[in-house]
TrEMBL record:
Residues forming coiled coils: none
Domain (Ketoreductase): residue spans on this chain: 10-206
Family under the similarity heading: Belongs to the short-chain dehydrogenases/reductases (SDR) family.
Protein name: 3-hydroxyacyl-CoA dehydrogenase
Cleavable signal peptide: none
Superkingdom of the source species: Bacteria
């Protein structure tokens, strides 16, 4: 008697799946019964050099474990590439039930030193890449009447971080994009959610270590494996996650967080309206107690992962 697996009969496309978090999601999805399209252009961390070896290797590992997978080397930042990978999923496996938008690059720099090229490149892969692949997948999913879009955001965008204006802007943009997709696509039973992952991977390996405190932080991050992220992604891709949409989760080792979304925290009202003096003397003193501090992600997630 065969045992039913949570993703039996499902087809999932995972971008940036040649290594790190993407590979972990692809591998675990295959073990859970899904057929997997492993997308990876084999780019270096800054998106320069390319090779198909990483995607091919992940496919070989999945097939060795008895799973089904195909490799794809298209570029998520190119709309035609996104269409091609979605078409490959439909051609190879007959449908597309879930997308994990994981592909990404980094080009860190302090804002006042950041070039247009480095801002544009990071936003193109993360934000435009998420749009391109999701937009292509939405056509297939609408015809099916179901689907799950899973996007990787980051606390660099949700909270803030130094020297990552390009990455932070893209990742916070992904959270807003996901909410819009959840609203627009709900009539076709297509859901859209975000995960902010904490894990040691190619992306986090670029963190500069220039102090004992930073070295300690990096050592703690090395203990957080990419495989810790996969269970939440698999749940969101499964039928059990059918009632979950428009949400933002964070996964940090053995912790799962539901992340708040921007809402008003305090208000002031003046019947006669406002002028500069009343804003200065009344509005801002009343609101100041609720100002958000200039936190970075490490200030908010300041305890050791459990």
């Amino acid at each position: 008697m065969s045992v039913t697996k949570p993703l039996d009969g499902k087809v999932i496309l995972v971008t940036g799946a040649g290594g790190g978090i993407g590979r972990a999601i692809a591998m675990e999805a295959a073990k859970a019964g899904a057929a997997v399209v492993v997308n990876d252009i084999g780019a270096s961390l800054d998106g320069q050099s390319q090779s198909s070896a990483a995607a091919d290797d992940a496919v070989a590992a999945i097939e060795k474990d008895g799973g089904r997978a195909v490799a794809n080397g298209d570029d998520v930042s190119n709309p035609d590439g996104a269409q091609a990978m979605v078409r490959q999923a439909a051609d190879a496996f007959g449908r597309l039930d879930a997308v994990a938008n994981n592909a990404g690059i980094l080009r860190d720099s302090f804002f006042h030193k950041m070039t247009y090229e480095n801002f544009d490149a990071v936003v193109k892969v993360h934000l435009y890449g998420t749009f391109n692949v999701s937009r292509a997948a939405a056509d297939v999913m609408r015809e099916q009447g179901s689907g799950s879009l899973i996007h990787m955001t980051s606390t660099s965008g949700l909270v803030g971080n130094l020297a990552q204006a390009n990455y932070s802007a893209a990742k916070l943009g992904i959270a807003a994009l996901s909410k819009s997709m959840a609203l627009d696509l709900q009539r076709w039973n297509i859901r859209s959610n975000c995960i902010a992952p904490f894990a040691w991977s190619r992306m986090t390996s670029s963190i500069k270590v220039d102090s004992p405190e930073q070295e300690e932080r990096v050592n703690r991050m090395k203990e957080m494996s990419p495989e810790k992220i996969a269970p939440v992604a698999l749940y969101l891709a499964s039928d059990d996650g059918a009632d979950t949409t428009g949400q933002i989760f964070a996964v940090r080792n053995n912790e799962i967080f539901l992340v708040s979304q921007p809402r008003p925290v305090r208000s002031v009202h003046r019947g006669e309206g406002w002028n500069f003096e009343s804003v200065r003397s009344h509005a801002m003193p009343a609101l100041r107690a609720s100002y958000m501090p200039l936190d970075v992600s490490a200030d908010v997630f300041c305890w050791d992962p459990i």
